[in-house]
């Protein structure tokens, strides 16, 4: 008698449409409590920024920074329970990845190329040199490699947005992300207030000052705040240079995604033993989907396939989603732990910013910009 084989056993039925819908509803309901908390923090942060703009005319402290500070402040008096964790984790990762993808729609390669090859090459070189020098400074101060990369990329590219984009690629801890953003935010405000002094101190023209602001100020709104008092030419040049720095986010994060598997594990002091080759990850592990999305949208924008009328709403949506994700990161941070690393991080961010300023001034002098 021949025994029945496994092939003759009946296959389990495929999930019905109702079962799939029930699963989606269950997933959404598990995300909702934490997501609502992040949205509430986002709303308060945007309200505070709006009040700040009404009183001062400029958002010196952006809602993105306020969200992470408010989230961290809430975390000190309330520890999210299990029902909130899934939504907070979703906001910190998936929502952030969508926001980074949408940032590509605001990048126009054509406008950047039209500014001239020498300036373009200088900006790219300045960003690369700043990242390398900042990493070396941070490591010399004893900061972990991931924290060093966060600070270096934040200073060299676009502050909080770069930190937020780099963090999931290199597997940075939420405390490191919060520390880098918090201290970078403080210096960002000081830069907006103090940078115009370089016009009389160094005798810079509007064009030269625009390049300086575009190379050193973190966020686009801060570039506007730092250049509008100097003149319209400074604002136009500063914004263009800033866009080049934003464009560098894609290649830098792509390079870091290739480097990430070689980084030591969090808290590790040594690498893997020689001769033991790590398993080669797949393409989508090396190149995260949201980086491909960023580059795809930048290409579509450059080809004119994304109309000008669509840029503003896409940018607003990207900004909103970034604030939501920063609220989630803040909720994962205990400020008492953050205070323990504050001194070294402050020194590292300050030193990195000074390096960036020096490189920018040397570039302006070397290119003899008028």
UniProtKB/TrEMBL annotation:
Cell membrane recorded as keyword: yes
UniProtKB keywords: Cell membrane, Membrane, Transmembrane, Transmembrane helix
Record's bilayer topology term: Multi-pass membrane protein
Transmembrane segments: 21-43, 63-82, 94-113, 119-137, 149-171, 177-199, 211-231, 243-261, 282-302, 314-333, 345-368
InterPro entries from the UniProt entry: UPF0324_pro
Superkingdom assignment: Bacteria
Compartments, as annotated in UniProt: Cell membrane
Region annotated Disordered, chain positions: 1-20
Pfam families: Cons_hypoth698
Keyword Nucleotide-binding: no
Family, similarity comment: Belongs to the UPF0324 family.
Protein name: YeiH family protein
Species this chain originates from: Methylobacterium longum
